[in-house]
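Backbone-to-sequence.
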């Protein structure tokens, strides 16, 4: 969808006003730029990620931190026996940064470095592009139940603008802007918030009970969980 936007030019004592059709969310960053059609947003994103766009993340504004959603971070553990059992469940979790426009953040990557430079200049510390943690929790699983571990990570959002500075003009301009909101893990204790790890359990389904009864395995059985599927 296109919209019309007024661009003002200034030159000495005279000025001119022209109308230009610009793609929503993509604008030339200079008020003196001639009207033109913006490059596809996907190209801006790709060029920032490869370094071709010589981008920077401008005007970062950190929003209030919050506790993210709980998600499963362990396998299922079944108590097929007739007595309660204390069992240690190992869990692991990795939380990565995401972007409303689809920027990809990788450790040591171009856009991660850009974000770190912007953060260091404005807040005195770098951005956490990801956080990984592994631990174990000893829990009590009642007979006929299945248990698992869920975890919630302290998160934060930062809004800002990706700005290109192409070596050569793209669609009539070297500089283009794309607004974005980046979400990523925050260190535990940020603004007093702590990560949370909880044990969850439920009564086995009929099919799970049958699976237990048909097996002569130990009272405790495990079922691997596709962590990616479990988080969707």
């Amino acid at each position: 969808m296109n919209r019309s936007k007024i661009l003002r030019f200034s030159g000495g004592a005279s000025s001119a006003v022209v109308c230009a059709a610009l793609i929503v969310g993509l604008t030339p960053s200079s008020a003196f730029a001639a009207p033109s059609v913006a490059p596809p947003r996907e190209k801006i994103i790709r060029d920032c990620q490869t370094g071709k766009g010589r981008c920077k993340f401008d005007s970062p504004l950190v929003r209030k931190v919050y506790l993210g959603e709980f998600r499963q971070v362990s396998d299922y553990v079944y108590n097929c026996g007739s007595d309660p059992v204390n069992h240690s469940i190992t869990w692991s979790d990795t939380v990565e940064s995401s972007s409303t426009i689809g920027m990809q953040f990788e450790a040591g990557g171009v856009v991660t470095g850009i974000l770190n430079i912007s953060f260091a200049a404005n807040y005195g510390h770098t951005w956490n592009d990801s956080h990984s943690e592994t631990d174990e929790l000893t829990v009590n699983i009642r007979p006929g139940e299945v248990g698992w571990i869920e975890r919630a990570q302290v998160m934060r959002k930062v809004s800002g603008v990706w700005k290109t500075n192409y070596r050569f003009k793209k669609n009539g301009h070297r500089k283009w802007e794309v607004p974005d909101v980046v979400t990523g893990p925050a260190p535990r204790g940020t603004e007093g918030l702590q990560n949370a790890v909880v044990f969850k359990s439920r009564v086995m389904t009929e099919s799970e009970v049958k699976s237990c009864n048909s097996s002569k395995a130990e009272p405790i059985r495990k079922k691997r969980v596709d962590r990616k599927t479990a988080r969707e």
